[in-house]
Amino acid sequence: MSQQPILFKSWRDLPVMAASLGNTSVNKTGAWRNVEPHHVEQTPPCTWRCPAGNDVVGFVTLVGAGQFEEAWRVLAATSPFPGTCGRVCPHPCEVECNRGEMGGKINIHAIERFLGDRFRERPPALKRAPASGRSVAVIGSGPAGLSAAYHLALMGHGVTVFEAQPVAGGMMRVGIPDFRLPPEVLEAEITRIASLGVEIRTGVRIGSDLPFSDLMAKFDAVFAATGLTVSRPLGAKGEDRGGVLSGTEVLRRVNLGLDPETGSRVLVVGGGNTAIDVARSLLRMGRDVRLQYRRTRDEMPAIAEEIEELLAEGIEIDFLAAPVETWREDGCLVGAWSIRMALGEPDASGRRSPKPIPGSEFAVPCDTIVTAIGETADLAYLPDDILAKTSWNIPADELGRTPVDKLFAGGDAADGAGTVTAAIGFGRRAANGIDEYLRHGAAGVDKAMESDTADATTPSLRSRESKVIRFADLNPAYFEFRPREEPDSLPVSERTQSFDEVWGGFDEAAAMQEAGRCFSCGSCPACDNCYVFCPDVAVHRAFGENARPAPYDLMPGVLYWVDYDYCKGCGICAAECPRGCIVMRPVK
């Protein structure tokens, strides 16, 4: 028997609230709604903050499900350095992690390190595009240069990397001590890049060993990624009379197994990662080390954990102090005259500017001063006509384009960001820009910049992304309090006796346990809440060809869709969505 429509004689017969009194196949309740649910892949704060552009929720979720190779491939799509970044990245991805409200932020960098270490010796094969017949020269084998080389090789281009140092890796190799980044970790990841057909020529300094003009003539594009390698001068009277060394040179000598050529009592000046690494390295070599920084600890740009480890190892820091003159006897350095500082108004960096306090000078005995107050780029290899278009850096846009045709630049030589992760992200964006240039000319790069699908790892492009999910957007009723997992580390008493790596890594169980804490903010893992809770049975699941694409196929073959003929717009599905990826929008 067919169902007849329900008709009311007058308004008095209407129910006091919207309710179905018959078979909804006839009475399509969807006509009542003025808002409707839409599934939207929102942006997790971790992915939002990752300078490399990694799909953080993607690889973390897959690790939690035990799908390690799939997780590695998600990382490999954006970064060739999971083992390196998992150790040295300041992990801004963790800063705004919503899990911090319920047990502690996800240990994302330890999970990334786990993936890098697990596939270090036998990484899964990556598919290269057909050879394009075009060639690119990369100047510098640091994180930006090798990241660009990696992605360009996958795109099918021929790549040759030129490195002035005797080993590849740039400042990752000669600027980060072994106790933070063991050389075998970096070397394995560089070997994987070379296996894609990238030629790496070490011991070749552009400008002296090979003219820059030869690269511009021989290659279809040139990518300059020489980083920040020159320490800024201290500005103290008498620093040019000996006994004052640059932090980058000290680290280079230590990492290459050479004598750092310091005395036994060393004053390290600075508050960044270079200063911390120098001090901790020299401590391990038996030096008596002291650190001096002209601001307070709150203004120190070094990674917070590295500062904690330096203090735990017994190195003292003189805050609000800076050397103004070297102290010498018989021409030999015996100390520094330093002056106390007071903080004034914020400067261009946003930090309060240090001001000397007259009459507060004091002596600091030492036989070596190491300067680590910031680095600049060495651009001496560029010809004069190009140097005239530069300042402290090589001006470049988000895809690496410079004012000079076929010359691209990236990493610290362009933006001075100063982290491995930011340089990796810049290298990938530049590779995209170079690829467009090689295939379509300058107009192709312009089109890529205007595209809605352009890379979104810089502020001006991030405006195209969806909403960043915060804790208030989640439904915490579906999550339990679980404390953060931490890997083991060497006891403080053992750390300073060698250059052995301080921190260990997760094993498989610990990595899955920690990854399982992830909320997957803004990303649907097919929990079925919307399907189960819909009072009108308007949410449906589709299978087969409509399956949800990797890497989120934790419930393989599931895709949700809404039958708007019967959705009343009640919003229960959005309210019960644990991860904030269902939004209610006005009916158009």
Radius of gyration from CA coordinates: 29 Å
Largest sheet: 5 strands, parallel
| Domains, number | 4
Content-based structural category: alpha/beta
- C-alpha termini separation: 36 Å
Q: How many DSSP helices?
A: 21
Question: What is the beta-strand fraction?
Answer: 15-25%
Residues in helix, %: 25-40%
What is the CATH superfamily of the largest domain? FAD/NAD(P)-binding domain
Question: Regarding CATH, which class of the largest domain?
Answer: Alpha Beta
CATH topology of the largest domain: FAD/NAD(P)-binding domain
In CATH terms, what is the architecture of the largest domain? 3-Layer(bba) Sandwich
Characterize the overall form. globular
Number of strands: 20
What is the strand arrangement across the widest sheet? Answer: 4-3-2-5-17
Task: Write structural notes for this entry.
This protein is an alpha/beta fold. It has 4 domains: 81 residues, 2-Layer Sandwich (Alpha-Beta Plaits), CATH 3.30.70; 121 residues, Fumarate Reductase Iron-sulfur Protein, Chain B, domain 2 (Orthogonal Bundle), CATH 1.10.1060.10; 173 residues, FAD/NAD(P)-binding domain, CATH 3.50.50.60; 122 residues, FAD/NAD(P)-binding domain, CATH 3.50.50.60. Helices cover 29% and strands 17% of the residues. The protein contains 21 helices and 20 strands. A 5-stranded parallel β-sheet has the order 4-3-2-5-17, with helices on one face. It has a 5-stranded parallel β-sheet with strand order 7-15-8-9-10. Strands 11, 12, 13 and 14 form a 4-stranded antiparallel β-sheet that branches. Strand 2, helix 6 and strand 3 form a beta-alpha-beta unit. Helix 2 crosses helix 19. The longest helix has 21 residues. The two termini are 36 Å apart. 44% of the residues are buried. About 4% of the residues have low confidence.
